[in-house]
Design a protein that fits this description.
- With 196 residues, the chain is mainly α.
- It has two domains: 94 residues, no CATH class; 65 residues, no CATH class.
- The protein is 58% helix and 2% strand.
- The protein contains eight helices and two strands, in the order H-H-H-H-H-H-E-E-H-H.
- A two-stranded antiparallel sheet has the order 1-2.
- A hairpin with a 2-residue loop joins strand 1 and strand 2.
- The termini are far apart.
- InterPro entries: DUF6624.
């Protein structure tokens, strides 16, 4: 009986400590919920995508994703809602920056949405609406999400290059996708590349 009492006291103490920690740090944690479809006016998709692009780039420059989590989440909802309600845009309907906004919204959302809409990204790349670089970056991120080695070496995890398939030929693959040599890319992250 004493052991159970001691266990319960320890458990309640831990719960209290965690609760106090979360309460004190509540502004550092943002749960934004699931990505939902929102009402969009297809005749205003150009304006919406301009705002999404501008917002996404501001968020990335500020490098404070916790502070901007709600705005980032809203961008993702807008992009997904445009695709669902209006269809995947093309360069005949929008400009390159607006197409890039579609890609950014999908690249920065959850795995299940990247995976779901990746065939549309592939088609957009084949049609010349998005670059091969867009394809490579999203493909690598999906592979990383699935716990598989990446192909093009674009993903960094915990300050290191994420697992890479056939590293000895990565620069050939990168060149085909319009990407710089991996050594140059990784210098930005202070990471040295070793193909072995």
């Amino acid at each position: 009986m004493k052991k159970i009492k001691v266990f319960l006291i320890i458990l309640l103490s831990l719960i209290s400590i965690v609760s106090i920690f979360l309460y004190i740090n509540r502004d550092k944690f943002t749960y934004v919920g699931s990505v939902d479809y929102v009402d969009v006016d297809c005749s205003k998709k150009i304006e919406i995508l301009n705002e999404v692009y501008k917002s996404d780039q501001k968020i990335r420059r500020e490098n404070n994703l916790i502070k901007n989590a709600k705005e980032d989440h809203r961008n993702q909802e807008l992009v997904i809602s445009i695709i669902e309600k209006c269809g995947m845009p093309t360069l005949k309907e929008v400009n390159q920056k607006q197409m890039n906004a579609i890609w950014l919204g999908l690249q920065h959302t959850e795995y299940k949405y990247r995976k779901k809409y990746f065939p549309l990204i592939e088609k957009a790349v084949k049609n010349g609406d998005l670059s091969k670089e867009h394809y490579a970056l999203m493909k690598d991120r999906i592979l990383m999400d699935e716990g598989k080695p990446q192909i093009y070496g674009s993903q960094i995890k915990n300050g290191k290059l994420y697992d890479l398939d056939e590293p000895e030929t990565v620069n050939e693959r990168r060149q085909k996708m319009g990407l710089e040599p991996i050594e140059d890319y990784l210098k930005r992250f202070n990471i040295t590349f070793d193909a072995n």
